From TrEMBL:
This is 2-methylcitrate dehydratase. It comes from the Bacteria. It comes from Rhodococcus opacus (Nocardia opaca). Residues 10-247 form the MmgE/PrpD N-terminal domain. Belongs to the PrpD family. Residues 274-441 form the MmgE/PrpD C-terminal domain. GO terms for molecular function: lyase activity.
Amino acid sequence: MTSSDRLTWNIAEWIVDQQQRPLPERMDHHVRRLLLDHLAGVVASSPGAVSGAVGEHVHRMYPGTTATAIGHGRSSALGAALINGTNGHGIETDEGYTPGSMHPTSVIFPAVFAVAQEKGISGDRVLTAAAIGMELSCRIAAAGHPATRNRHFHNTAIAGVFGAAAAVAVLLELDVTGVANTLGIAGSHASGLFEFLGQSAEIKRFHPGKAARDGITSADLAQAGLTGPTTILEGKDGYFAAYAGVEGTDWDPGILLGGLGEEWVLLGTYVKPYPCCRHLHGAIDAALHLVNTHTIDPADIASVIVGTFAIATRHAGRQLDTILQAQLSLPFTVAVALLRGGVTLTDFSEDTRSNIAVQALMNKVQVVLDDAADAAYPKSGRPADVTVVMNDGTRYQHRVEQPYGEPSNPLSDSDLEGKARALVEPVIGADGTKNLIESSWNFDSLEFLDFLDSAVRNADPR
């Protein structure tokens, strides 16, 4: 088994070494895919109420002009990272990394973009910093998952702050000691609890923004001379001891270090086809398969049984007062899939949540633990099994091992562009969406962020 000795220092040395190397062609393309997916979510989220609340806070507490908060004008770097990170996670469209159950883009890109704008940095250096930060956050999350989630922490925030700090350290060109101190400081910022689940608590959306902001703060403080514990990851009172538990039982340094510098686990990130929690997607896929291959009259359904892994079974809420509650509900999303043959952003509206037919079918959906699925997650899949039982006793069943969008079942580039258009055109129109897509694929500077900001604030879709 890989030893955790010098774990934080080994990571710091990798960060400094990796930034000197160009991204492999496949990785470069993948980062641009993630950029497009991220920016589409940010733009689509920016007119929302949560974005408005955080924007009000930022304009009051983080005034400035050095960075762009899309939909909210110029702000300080900390303020822009806070808003853009919140919006990246604002409508549950952001990608993720299954082995770590976390969403790296909504933390890392906002931190990198804010500091890059402030420092006048552009081009490949920005993408390299983002790639390093996302890679690290995925590895840290995977090394402690599911123990961290079982201890009630939100991996996106607690692992993401290390990735954001590392990415900003790259932009600031800190040496190995500076990076190690940056990570040590970031550990004191790692936070985010799962108590939002099942409630109307929109703080979930804020977690990536907070982690992005705190990652910037960590690197900036290290550059200024503040020191942090350089055993923050492996120490007896460090991150993994506090958030996961016992080395070798609850967390594995081998997952964090294995292939580091040679293999990019970030290539294993998925892209979401549906705007809701990823734990729900396998069941949605299975339900859609059934309605597309059988003649099923929803009015004749007696019951629906969804078998899945333990963490997903926690998403069985039926209270639908808010969009967030619906986006975290297996019974609701499976009912929508069976009734409407798809799950889109508009399906989370108040009209749909209160629809009599949707609610009636939702109440027939039972979520149960599937032992085989639980054994598979998170190492080999996110399985879900859906059985639809009709009033006459007929049963239709389908099992999904990996939901659509995973690397083994990926969205094509064209499908990704289609997702972006569906999210963004209602906000900034077809021309603005075209600019976003082209700027993501051809990324070489951050000038287009001000265009997106202006387009959102002066939205008049054509």
